[in-house]
Specification:
By secondary structure, this protein is of the alpha/beta class. The protein has one domain (about 5-255): TIM Barrel. The protein has nine helices and eleven strands. It has helices spanning about 15-30, 50-60, 70-90, 110-115, 125-135, 165-170, 190-215, 240-245, 255; strands at about 10, 40-45, 65, 100, 120-125, 145-150, 160, 180-185, 230-235, 250, 260. Strands 2, 3, 4, 5, 6, 7, 8, 9 and 10 form a nine-stranded parallel sheet that branches. A two-stranded antiparallel sheet has the order 1-11. The structure holds pyridoxal-5'-phosphate. Pyridoxal-5'-phosphate binds next to strand 10 and helix 9.
């Protein structure tokens, strides 16, 4: 147990309280949208978390974590692998932790990344998809990826335009080391909740469009509509809206982790 005062984070309550509150909000939003809570996957984004916080979330039973930079992903996975190896020594078993890449990826980092992650949310170009395909040849299974779509058309945003998505998904469907599992959508940066709601509505519509188009291809390749089943939308400020619009993966950081009071953390040191 840790006492208050050791934390570099400012936000009400303990990590556990925040985590459980977010889980409950996810579950409530799922029910409001006619689904069961377990149909929605919560990815806790750990880019501003300490290693202690990640371990505590693992102790609470959490298994899905997201990072947005390959460098930090490499550090985190090494530290958490070590932690899980210790748990295995102590108890004979350890949880299966799933890492998600959610940020833009430089092509020279792909080789390392594909060894470490279960799902890449942020494929934002055909060139990146090709590189992941090439580097995934040695993986035992194809790499699961989502295509990041710039639904709102913001200049500053990464992602494929809505108009190009069907074409790009068809191209990706020919890459045997990839499984294109769905779309990732982000709300406009400072657009407020109405803009977020509208972006998520359009994201969900696009997702259903592509899914329908793949389904009617008659099952050539592995990209049938059934395997196109993941829609990643929603962050701390808007995840309930995203679920109500149809998201089945949300990526939540600060609402669980808290807000760093200083610079983003790379270690646990506080001054
Ligand atoms: C940081 C980040 C999140 C989480 O953001 P919060 O507002 O902290 O919940 C989600 N998705 C992406 C792509 C991110 O970079």
């Amino acid at each position: 147990m840790q006492e208050a005062g050791e934390s570099a984070l400012t936000m009400e309550g303990s990590l556990r309280e925040r985590y459980e509150a977010v889980q409950k909000r996810v579950a409530d939003a799922a029910r409001r949208s006619g689904r069961r809570p377990e149909q929605i996957k919560l990815v806790v984004v750990t880019k501003a978390a300490t290693i202690e916080q990640i371990r505590e979330l693992i102790a609470l039973g959490h298994q899905d974590f997201g990072e947005n930079r390959v460098q930090q992903l490499m550090q985190r996975t090494a530290q958490i692998d070590e932690h899980c190896a210790r748990l295995r020594d102590l108890r004979g078993s350890a949880p299966d932790i799933r890492w998600h890449m959610i940020g833009s990826v430089q092509r020279n980092k792909v080789r390392k990344m594909v060894e470490l992650v279960r799902l890449v949310h942020s494929v934002d170009s055909l060139r990146l998809a090709e590189e992941i395909h090439v580097q995934s040849a040695r993986r035992p299974q194809p790499m699961d990826v989502l295509l990041e779509v710039n639904v709102s058309g913001e200049i500053s945003k990464h992602g494929i335009t809505a108009a190009a998505v069907r074409h790009v998904v068809q191209q990706m469907d020919t890459m045997v080391n990839l499984r294109t599992r769905g779309l990732m959508v982000m709300a406009p940066l400072n657009g407020g909740l109405d803009a977020a709601r509208e972006t998520f509505r359009r994201g969900a519509e696009l997702f259903q469009d592509v899914r329908g188009a793949l389904g009617s291809r008659g099952g050539a390749g592995h990209g049938s509509g059934d395997a196109f089943d993941l829609l990643s939308m929603g962050m701390s400020g808007d995840f309930e809206l995203a679920i109500e619009a149809g998201a089945n993966i949300v990526r939540v950081g600060t609402a669980v982790i808290g807000v760093p009071s200083t610079e983003p953390t790379t270690g646990a040191e506080t001054s």
